[in-house]
Design brief:
Bound molecules: NADP nicotinamide-adenine-dinucleotide phosphate
CATH class of the largest domain: Alpha Beta
Radius of gyration: 20 Å
Strand content: 25-35%
Number of domains: 2
Helix content: 10-25%
CATH topology of the largest domain: Rossmann fold
Structural class: alpha+beta
């Protein structure tokens, strides 16, 4: 099969090369997926998991890319809940060959069905930014209806997810961003926009203020902090635990007595 491979960490994206690689087989618990769309971020090339396996052995030449949407073409022994020809999307294992290829072998448990009315390109764009937003809001922030969320960079990959998920959870969403993105941000749901002075942002959008904003959460940039209010359990169901450690840009820290979100 054709795949994009990397062999030299120092070369960065300039070292990405189209090559022939063996088409993967479906090992025990694995599924083979024919890739229709793939997501890649350049910072992957700095992650240790791109270059070594879980015991630290060099695994280059490796195939980058960790988001995918495609169709199941083979089922390994022990796989359940999937069928040949099924549309799926996924966040792929950091430590295995990735999604910039025609086919991928992946554990069945890492796949989710992709509805027929969702394009492959949309499916492949969701996993990392969607899970980042979900984890920041619901796992770390324990967002509940009626609380407030500040989404910095609300027009961006994470911010747009934060805005939509928070609103669907009944939160009051304030978004920040650049003036050129104002309408795009409004299209994600907020119904009001107003300029902001003396800040390094161009606008703030607001919508759906609930009767009581008991605490607030900031998400979407490196400054992601639960800023006040008691800890409460999230009313939302937990997402699939598909994200290994070492994800791009994740961090958590303590701010006073409050747990702080990682976005
Ligand atoms: N994407 C992911 O899956 C992911 C996963 C984990 C962590 N993160 C982290 O989450 C943060 C956001 O990532 P992202 O992928 O959502 O980035 P993104 O798609 O580039 O979105 C960031 C948004 O913020 C805007 N922005 C930046 N500086 C601004 C300023 N001074 N004033 C107003 N708007 C500004 C950007 O506008 P311009 O494009 O015009 O600059 C862009 O719309 C980053 O810290 C990233 O490391 C992202």
């Amino acid at each position: 099969m054709k795949a994009i491979v990397v062999t030299d960490q120092a070369a960065g994206t300039a070292g990405m090369t189209l090559a022939e690689r063996p088409t993967p087989l479906a090992a025990i618990n694995d599924v083979v997926v024919q890739i229709h769309a793939s997501g890649f971020v350049p910072t992957e090339l700095t992650w240790p998991s791109t270059w070594t396996d879980r015991v630290g052995r060099d695994r280059s030449p490796s195939i980058p890319g960790h988001e995918l949407a495609g169709v199941v073409t083979a089922l390994g022994y022990g796989t359940t809940g999937l069928s040949i020809g099924q549309r799926v999307f996924s966040l792929a294992d950091w430590y295995r060959d990735g999604t910039l290829a025609e086919h991928l072998a992946i554990e069945a448990r890492n796949l989710a069905p992709l509805p027929g009315d969702v394009d492959f390109t949309v499916g492949a764009s969701l996993p990392i930014s969607g899970l980042t937003a979900w984890q920041g809001l619901f796992q770390h922030g324990r967002l509940e209806a009626g609380q407030s969320v500040l989404a910095h960079g609300a027009a961006g990959a994470v911010g747009s997810m934060v805005t939509q998920l928070a609103r669907s959870a009944g939160a009051y969403v304030i978004g920040t961003g650049r003036a050129a993105d104002r309408q795009k941000t409004l299209d994600f749901g907020p119904s009001e926009a107003r300029p902001v002075d003396r800040l390094a942002i161009d606008f703030v959008v607001e919508a759906d203020r609930a009767h009581s904003a008991r605490s607030s959460i900031a998400c979407g940039t490196d400054d992601c902090a639960r800023t006040s209010g008691p800890s409460r359990r999230s009313p939302m169901p937990s997402p699939p635990s598909t994200r290994p450690s070492g994800a791009r840009g994740r961090r958590s820290f303590a701010l006073g007595r409050e747990e702080v979100a990682a976005c």
